[in-house]
What we know:
Blueprint: E1 3-8, E2 12-13, E3 26-33, E4 47-54, H1 62-77, E5 83-89, E6 93-101, H2 104-115, H3 125-139, E7 146-153, H4 164-176, E8 179-186, H5 192-201, E9 203-209, H6 215-227, E10 229-239, E11 244-248, E12 254-256, E13 260-269, E14 273-282, E15 289-300, E16 306-317, H7 320-323, H8 330-353, H9 357-368, H10 379-387, H11 393-408, H12 411-426, H13 432-451
Parallel strand pairs: 2-16, 4-5, 4-7, 7-8, 8-9
Antiparallel strand pairs: 1-3, 3-14, 5-6, 10-13, 10-15, 11-14, 12-13, 15-16
Helix pairs in contact: 1-2, 1-6, 4-5, 8-9, 8-11, 9-10, 11-13, 12-13
Amino acid sequence: MPKMTVNINRSHVELGRDEQGLANEIIMRLTLLAPELTQTQNPRMPLNIGLVIDRSGSMSGQKLTDAVAACQRIVGRLTGDDRCTIVTFDDQASLLADGNYVTDAQRALISTALGVVRSGGSTNLSGGWQLAADTLLTHHARNGYVSRTVLLTDGQANSGMTSEVELSALASNYHSRGISTSTYGLGGGYNEDLLTSIATQGRGNHQFIEQSVDIDRYFSDELQELFAVSLRNATITIPIPAGFSVEVVGQLPHRRDDTQLIIEVGAMVVLEQRNVYLRLIPATDAALGTRHITTTMSGVDSNGETLTTTCDIDLHIATADVVAQYPVDTALEQEAMLIDLAWVRGEANRLKRERRYDDASTFVRQMRHRSRIYAKFDIYEELADEMHHHSSNEDFKNSSKRNFMSSRASAKDLHRLRAELDEMKQRGETGTLMIQLERLIAQLEEQLRNNQR
Length: 453
């Protein structure tokens, strides 16, 4: 069975507003734990996978050869219960495999089709990805498959849909319909911001592949993760308590009505743990008293059965003297702030890339002052000042790289840090620097996982 626990920064909250008009608020952290795979005749969930391979001119030669070989090996590991879609793209998209079951006959057809793939023109990333995702949708049964597109490119989206905002929204839309998206950037020339945003909104993975010879290893890791999915279509349902409004921290995909909030979690692998944060804000005219909340997590296991677990908690609206008797978990508040700040920085960086410096700075300050808790942290103000800086093009590129690493855990930089650590180990080095590097790598790995959820 899945498990869920709930923690809050404070159990009691008072009414009233501060001089900025901000209310006291309760931060809730829901910690989810996926179950182990169920014991059935089918040891894993069937896959509905789409491989989307860039074959533009820059992929010519060994890059494309290695990408095709990686696809061949992925297909070789699928079974007759799995469906496979393969799309290649340059300025046009080509459907090489249309999502049929991976029988021996289908495997032979795919091998033949991949054998004649050649590099072409420009990079219509959106065209290739959409063709694959739409094909997956024709076969996707919401409770039947783990459905994911896996996109590999070495360059910039320069044909078709190219806007990061539009493509990220498209990834979120596909996820809401059951299709997640992972992205892989090959070499140093691809648009990391774009691919990371697509993977984040698509609830998949993003990885930087430095050399094409490593494509197979990364694709194998992706497939191994999909094989280990133990819960799909996971959701959290939170009833909206009387006298409160509820906000999701970090803009996770969600929907709501007048009585409840439903957060789309998606697929979870065996014993995976995730944290989801909420803000509960009392209305100025809310009545004093206790609200009992039962949060519900549900999903479909590898046996096709719907599993449900619940967690209960009491929230209290009380007078100031009563509230003062209860402790406040400031560490939990800071966790929620960091999740929010990563989202705020991403949105502000988008405005800055459009040279809308004033808008970016104003946005950050507005986001800080929508929460009494966020307003306590000066890091928002520091970010606002940073966004307001009208830098030269070269300074802007450099600062964007630093910003991305510090706030969103750049996959490229993480790769380079791992390589540096390996070299230090090979040289037999020890000491404080090595320990600090190991800690930094661990922190960035955790941050990257959080940002992609």
